[in-house]
Write a structure and sequence with these properties.
D-Maltodextrin-Binding Protein, domain 2; two-stranded parallel ribbon; five-stranded mixed sheet; alpha/beta
């Protein structure tokens, strides 16, 4: 190769090198004007326009979720989250109206549903994009009951900011007066304890042993009955999602266990609601989630009621072959079909369920309560185990069962009729199958 050719090749290589460097500079350095807003590398949250998310939630005042909102808006200054705390009374009616009225401008991007009604909204919600949160990560981070309730067909459809379960709250003095220190962990022995605690006058209960019947004065009866069914190892639905519980011989035994507490006169439908009677010192035991226990402790302290309050794990059936079974009671967040920014909505929910954000939310709630919401993440469970109250609920969550109801309110009505004697297990199964296959799903023009 002569000198001229060698020089030409070297000059060509140098020019090519300079061009490549120039391209890299253009690609990776900010353009003129010095854009100071960091770009979102995932492309999930656009940073070149203003985005507004509307969030409808229950139970939490804005100040308790504000730390989550502030942290996310600090990360994405172009995102505004408009929070609205709703009341439970007319929430479902209002929600389902805006979900089905084909007016996207009135529909919240994020809304709250009971964990047993996620499937009801499948036609009016959007699953989480896998690039935001995939099923495998969801399954790894959250309790099994959450995965069972909030994911199907390999996609995440709902996510909770907290979780709760059912435990047994008791009056230590009333138990001690009857010769007991703690509630029994066996259903049969618990009935005997309730009978010995109960006091009556003129055929009326003056002190009740345990609140349990299919009536609203036992607020969480539905959760307890489902707990009994699962503990009895009743198959609630088959692999096709059809109700089959009436075909199981254990169903009648579970129903009778439940009815025993009213038939043995330890509770009846003429009494005040369980929490009211408990606060008056006239109820030995009742089943409730942790948020209700928080209220009981707060009332006891605020009004100096002098109650000595305990909390115990739910009893188990002696026939249960292995392990223990609990029941989770909680609410989940979903993203609406009408959301123009559904990826951003899901990104916010994923962000809000990271450990740092959950801790901030818990701390804020604990400023005005006895404790905040129980963390929904498995890896955060140990952080609450030192709490004398929450450790009981955590144990229940870890062993909680579930089944797909589609619409828990409709199923609750059916079970109430059955347990009140106005229906049978067979008729209840038929009605539940109608809910599971048809009426349970939200459709335009058909809301409950």
């Amino acid at each position: 190769m002569n000198d001229n050719l060698r020089t030409f090749v070297l000059l060509g290589a140098a020019v090519l090198f300079i061009v490549i460097i120039g391209i890299l500079v253009i690609l990776f350095l900010p353009g003129e004007g010095g854009n100071e807003t960091p770009q979102d590398n995932t492309g999930i949250v656009p940073t070149d326009r203003q985005i507004t998310l509307i969030w409808w939630n229950l139970f939490e005042p804005q100040e308790n979720v504000q730390p989550l909102i502030d942290a996310y808006q600090a990360k994405y200054p172009n995102v505004t989250i408009e929070y609205s705390e709703k009341t439970l009374d007319d929430y479902q009616t209002s929600l389902e109206k805006v979900l089905t009225d084909r007016q996207p401008e009135t529909t919240p991007d994020i809304f709250t549903v009971n964990s047993k009604s996620v499937a009801r909204y499948k036609n009016y919600s959007l699953p989480c994009p896998s690039e935001v949160l995939d099923y495998a990560t969801y399954q790894e981070n959250f309790y099994p009951v959450i995965v069972s309730d909030g994911a199907y067909d390999g996609s995440v459809h709902a996510i909770p900011l907290g979780i709760d379960s059912i435990a047994l709250i008791y009056n230590k003095k009333l138990l001690n007066d009857a010769g007991y220190t703690v509630p029994s962990s066996d259903w049969s022995e618990l009935l005997e304890q309730a009978q010995n605690i109960t006091k009556s006058s003129n055929n009326s209960i003056t002190t009740a042993g345990l609140a349990l019947n299919a009536d609203d004065n036992s607020q969480f009866w539905f959760e307890v009955f489902n707990l009994l069914m699962l503990q009895s190892e009743v198959g609630m639905v088959d692999e096709l999602g059809q109700a089959v519980f009436a075909e199981d011989s254990a169903t009648s035994e579970a129903a009778q266990y439940f009815k025993n507490f009213e038939e043995e006169n330890v509770w009846d439908d003429t009494l005040k609601q369980d929490i009211a009677l408990f606060l008056e010192g006239k109820l030995g035991m009742f089943f409730a989630p942790a948020w209700r226990l928080d209220e009981v402790i707060s009332y006891n302290q605020t009004y100096n009621l002098g109650l000595d309050i305990g909390v115990a794990n739910v009893p188990q059936l002696s026939s249960l072959e292995e392990g223990s079974v609990g029941w989770a009671d909680y609410w989940m967040q979903m993203v609406s079909l009408d959301s123009a920014n559904y990826k951003v909505a899901w990104d916010f929910l994923n962000f809000a369920t990271q450990p740092e954000q959950l801790r901030a939310s818990y701390s804020k709630a604990a400023e005005s309560r006895v404790f905040g919401q129980i963390y929904p993440r498995v890896d955060m469970g140990p952080e609450l185990e030192s709490n004398q109250y929450l450790e009981v609920y955590l144990a229940e969550i870890g062993q909680a069962g579930s089944w797909e109801m589609v619409d828990y309110l409709q199923v609750k009505e059916v079970f109430a009729e059955w347990l009140a004697g106005t229906g049978s297990a067979e008729s209840a199964q038929t009605k539940v199958n109608t809910i599971l296959s048809n009426s349970g799903y939200l459709r335009a023009g058909l809301t409950n």
